[in-house]
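Hypothesis: this fold can be encoded by more than one sequence.
Test: take the structure tokens below, design a sequence, compare later.
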């Protein structure tokens, strides 16, 4: 038997394998019936034989019989679809093949083959059509035997770079495609052979012979082929190139990762490093991110070098390709691609670099210029970092291990990545600029350092709730007063940020101005309350309005401490009362009447006076130190503060910071300010006072007494000016006041001369005419004293004058 005859016989067996045969005579009467026909239409042979074929099909198909008969007699056969009727009248869709056969007696016979379509889908198509489906399919198809050796493949499989079909016969998968993971693919085939379960959509990434320098992705499906007895004959598998879809998924995944990891902070350098970390190794093997130095400072980009290396990453540990360290200047040659991209704002790509070209940045440590050949770099992209129409720097992508060069899709992906990072870098730049401006504002509003004085040892700690700007509405201050006294102030303005800081600055300025008037604490708060209320009315601020620049509703505690006698006077306006740490470590809170918040109206403010032992510590604080939210009651907050204040510390500064760290988290819900002042007392050797009779003749005695005291203190160089000041102040008191007069000298950082009288009127500085006989006393005092003024006491007034002991007047 020849090869063609064997092939025809195989094809015939293949065509009739599942068909149910029956015989018809020339008139269409059934003359032969088989078991397969009985199984298909449920007629026993006794009922089927002798029936006309028209009784076995639908009336519609019966009308087609004349045409079918003509075709059979002309062509010798006919094939097509008909609808048969089984014994119960149910329609059965069948594939019918009719062949004309002459009997030995010369009579005409018809061989009919019936194939049920429900059990053999697709057999309604002719074999040539089915052969076209596999041979012309764009999907690669192959069959391997049970030894996993190729026995057949279609032409489409050659697109993956494998040999033509005849040359593939008998080869294993690894021999056909050595660049793919044949072991894992053959493991899928063995699983299908052993279990009979098909595997659909198995994805595989590797390098095929058609593209050895480029990773390609494929999806493969495996199905077992069985013979008529159900024994495995081999595996039928399909291959579809999904490289573009795979790369698209990779790009989307990379962009998603970039969205998650780039820009997690408002720091330009960290953002640049995050860009480098995300893109290696997903897109490039080595990346450098260079930003303009002005951008890192938060200034407007000038477009001029120098560029500073802000981030870099490599697939190799330690980034050995880098010739510039992070933080150093990247000095590119004039006209180099990075500088061209910086100037033009356009990206640049070079698929294959000149291996001997000099590296673009600075020299190597040994003085050599590194070449791309030495660094192993072969492909490059330069993408400018642009945001809001401004170029902030450049990002350079290199490939080293991956052999495929950068293509247009890679450049588009790089631009997407860099554009996302650029917005974050620009946001960080703007934040840096705004933060610097805010910090300048803060430094101008809060005291740079607390004034030096001898009344108290003082320290302060401030922690804003707004971590971005570092600004808030809490504030503190220490204001030196006359007579060696000091005013301690802690206040709080509603809100956070720049608006609250501006309101706080105005309030602090007002407090310092009122403190200069030497008013008692309750009067200072009263004037402050009027000032805030008037400003709120002028600005139209009231209930239901939102104005973060308004000081209305602010709180403040104002304390005056006198180191001569330890007298402490304080008043509060809608603010927590201070705590006192006694010398023995006991902590108590001052029982201070709570006045209303500033600017909201209410009863008058009240003050409290107490005497503090030397070494006591006043702790003035804002309410942010008492609670972490509304759920904390005031009593609970005070207990926590008391426990924190009771913990000893080597220094007052360390104690202050320890208390704030213990009670306020790194990101407090409210601004926190704590001012701690440890009291001191001036010794008897620093204060001297005398009663002065109301007699103008005894003014000279007062001068001599003061001069002797200065000699005892070793301040003889101040004798002349002090005698003049004493003479004028005592004379003025005798002339204009009534009642007792008292003279006091205080030696601290300055020499203070005070004269007390029971008068209620304050003296005023005059500029007398040339012909006037008097009126020059206070003018002379103002010339010789560093500062002078008047303060009122419950039973009179005190006129005082200070001379600096650091710069004596001669």
């Amino acid at each position: 038997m020849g090869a063609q005859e064997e092939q025809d016989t195989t094809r015939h067996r293949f065509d009739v394998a599942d068909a149910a045969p029956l015989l018809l005579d020339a008139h269409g009467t059934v003359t032969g019936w088989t078991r397969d026909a009985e199984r298909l239409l449920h007629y026993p042979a006794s009922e089927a034989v002798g029936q006309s074929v028209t009784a076995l099909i639908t009336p519609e198909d019966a009308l087609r019989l004349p045409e079918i008969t003509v075709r059979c007699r002309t062509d010798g056969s006919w094939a097509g679809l008909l609808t048969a009727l089984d014994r119960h009248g149910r329609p059965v869709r069948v594939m019918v093949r009719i062949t004309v056969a002459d009997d030995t007696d010369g009579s005409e016979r018809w061989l009919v083959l019936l194939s049920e379509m429900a059990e053999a889908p697709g057999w309604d198509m002719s074999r040539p059509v089915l052969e076209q489906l596999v041979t012309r399919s764009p999907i690669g198809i192959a069959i391997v035997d049970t030894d996993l050796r190729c026995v057949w493949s279609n032409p489409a499989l050659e697109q993956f770079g494998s040999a033509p079909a005849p040359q593939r016969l008998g080869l294993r998968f690894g021999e056909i495609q050595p660049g793919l993971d044949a072991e894992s693919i053959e493991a899928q085939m063995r699983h299908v052979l052993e279990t009979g379960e098909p595997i659909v959509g198995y994805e595989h990434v590797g390098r095929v012979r058609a593209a050895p320098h480029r990773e390609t992705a494929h999806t493969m499906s495996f199905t077992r082929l069985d013979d008529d007895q159900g024994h495995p004959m081999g595996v039928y598998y399909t291959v579809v190139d999904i490289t573009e879809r795979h790369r698209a998924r990779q790009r989307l995944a990379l962009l998603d990762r970039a969205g998650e990891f780039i820009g997690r902070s408002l720091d330009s350098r960290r953002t640049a490093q995050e860009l480098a970390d995300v893109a290696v190794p997903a897109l490039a093997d080595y990346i450098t991110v260079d930003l303009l130095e002005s951008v890192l400072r938060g200034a407007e980009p000038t477009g001029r070098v120098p560029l500073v290396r802000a981030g870099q990453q490599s697939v190799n540990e330690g980034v050995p390709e880098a010739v510039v360290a992070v933080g150093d200047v990247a000095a590119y040659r004039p006209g180099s691609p990075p500088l061209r991209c910086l100037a033009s704002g356009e990206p640049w790509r070079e698929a294959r670099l000149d291996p001997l070209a000099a590296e673009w940045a600075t020299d190597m440590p040994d003085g050599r210029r590194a070449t791309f050949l030495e660094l192993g770099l072969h492909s490059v992209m330069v993408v400018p970092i642009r945001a809001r129409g401004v170029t902030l720097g450049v990002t350079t992508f290199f490939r080293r291990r991956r052999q495929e060069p950068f293509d247009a899709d890679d450049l588009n992906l790089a631009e997407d990545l860099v554009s996302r990072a650029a917005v974050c870098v620009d946001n960080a730049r703007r934040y840096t600029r705004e933060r610097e401006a805010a910090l300048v504002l803060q430094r101008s509003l809060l005291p740079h350092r607390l004034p030096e004085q001898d009344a108290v040892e003082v320290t302060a700690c401030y922690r804003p709730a707004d971590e971005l700007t570092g600004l808030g509405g809490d504030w503190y201050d220490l204001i030196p007063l006359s007579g060696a006294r000091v005013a301690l102030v802690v206040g709080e303005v509603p809100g956070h940020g720049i608006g609250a800081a501006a309101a706080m600055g105005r309030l602090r300025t007002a407090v310092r101005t009122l403190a200069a008037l030497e008013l008692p604490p309750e009067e200072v708060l009263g004037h402050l309350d009027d000032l805030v209320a008037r400003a709120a009315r002028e600005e139209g601020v009231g209930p239901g309005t939102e104005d973060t620049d308004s000081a209305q509703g602010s709180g403040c505690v104002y304390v005056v401490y006198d180191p001569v006698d330890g007298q402490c006077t304080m008043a509060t306006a809608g603010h927590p009362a201070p705590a006192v740490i006694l010398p023995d470590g006991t902590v108590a809170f001052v029982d201070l009447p709570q006045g209303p918040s500033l600017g909201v109206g209410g009863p008058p403010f009240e003050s409290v006076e107490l005497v503090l032992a030397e070494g006591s510590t006043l702790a003035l604080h804002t309410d942010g130190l008492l609670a972490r939210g509304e759920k904390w009651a005031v009593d609970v907050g005070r207990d926590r503060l008391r426990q924190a204040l009771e913990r000893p510390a080597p220094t007052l500064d360390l104690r202050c910071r320890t208390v704030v760290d213990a009670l306020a988290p790194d990101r407090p819900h409210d601004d926190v300010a704590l001012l701690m002042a440890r009291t001191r007392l001036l010794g008897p050797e620093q204060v001297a006072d005398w009663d002065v009779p109301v007699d103008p003749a005894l003014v000279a005695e007062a001068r001599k007494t003061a001069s002797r005291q200065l000699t005892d203190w070793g301040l003889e160089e101040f004798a002349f000016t002090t005698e003049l000041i004493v003479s004028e102040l005592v004379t003025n008191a005798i002339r204009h006041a009534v009642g007792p007069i008292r003279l006091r000298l205080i030696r601290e950082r300055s020499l203070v001369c005070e004269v007390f009288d029971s008068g209620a009127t304050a003296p005023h500085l005059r500029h007398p005419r040339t012909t006037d006989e008097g009126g020059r006393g206070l003018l002379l005092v103002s010339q010789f004293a560093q500062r002078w003024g008047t303060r009122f006491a419950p039973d009179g007034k005190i006129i005082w004058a200070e001379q600096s002991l650091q710069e004596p007047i001669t």
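DSSP finds 22 helices and 32 strands in the chain. The radius of gyration is 51 Å.
Hypothesis status: open.
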